[in-house]
Amino acid sequence: MPSIHLTTVIHAPVQRVFDLSRSIKLHKISMQHTNERAVAGTMSGLINEGENVTWKAKHFFKTRILKTRITKMQLYSFFEDEMVHGDFKMMKHRHYFKPIENGTIVIDEFDFETPYGNFGKLCNKLFLTSYLQGLLEKRNSVIKEYAESNKWKTLLDPR
User: Fold this and answer.
1) For the chain, how far is it from start to end, CA to CA, in angstroms?
2) Which of 12, 40, 61, 120 could, after both became Cys, cross-link 114 (CB 3.0–4.6 A)?
């Protein structure tokens, strides 16, 4: 089973980074290039444990639907989302947040399984794993951009 492990340092408080990571709007912003949008479930605000969101986006020249659920959450330190329905056999994304002196360390562990047996395994090696890692890196760079500037206020500031 392919696994992606990313570590990102963000110079912002852990609570801000954690909440931005759960923001439906920020996720949409980070995936603009795929025209990703929430079409069912939690479609705005911050997603919480037990909630679902269904995403619709274009990947590999085809519109794809992915329904995920937040299966576990420990405020400001961890949450996990899992695929409920989609193109994968299995997909699980664990998000860890560790406060440090000058910000937050974010660790992503992303595991997935593709269908189609050996053909799926070949696709993983040739392009799918690197494609998915690129999406995660793009998402983290947008979280970092918002968290380290005043842009976060447009998403999280209640005023």
Assistant:
1) 45
2) 120
Q: Which amino acid is it at 142?
A: V
CA gap 148, 150 in Å, rounded: 7
Evaluated on CA atoms 90, 24, 12, 138, the torsion sign reads positive
Q: Which of 12, 9, 14 is nearest to 76 (CA)?
A: 14
Residues 17, 147 contacting (CB under 8 angstroms): yes
Three-state secondary structure call for residue 19: helix
Q: Give pLDDT tens digits for 21-42.
A: 999 999 999 999 999 999 999 9
The angle formed by the CA atoms of residues 24, 60 and 51, to the nearest 5 degrees, is: 25
pTM over 0.85: yes
Crossing angle of helices 14-21/129-147, nearest 10°?
Answer: 130
- Contact assessment for residue 60 and residue 79, using Cβ atoms and an 8 Å cutoff: no
